Amino acid sequence: MPGFESPGKHKNAKFERFYAQWDFRDRMGAPKKEKTVLLRMRVSARLHAYLGYLSRHTIMGASENDVALGVLTERLNVMIESKFHDRVKPPTD
Fold first, then answer.
1. CA 64, 65, 67: angle at the middle one, nearest 5?
2. What average pLDDT does range 52-70 have in this prediction?
3. Cβ–Cβ under 8 Å, residues 71 and 29
4. Among 22, 37, 79, 80, which one is least packed by beta carbons within 10 Å?
């Protein structure tokens, strides 16, 4: 029917706009495939379970790997912006 809109349409749009601020992909942008490098790491079962919880109950990512990628990328960007590498240097012999 012309002009008919689902009653939940505006609610969903409002919901999506509100939670978009927490979506790491919007702030970081999607990585370019040709400029990425594969990184593999192991985490404890407890940490993996928490990443799974975040993937199911938040919009941080669709899987444990997506959540870990977003958290790690966000943290590393903060470290780069704060010039962490200039403040914390290994001792020289």
1. 65
2. 93
3. no
4. 37
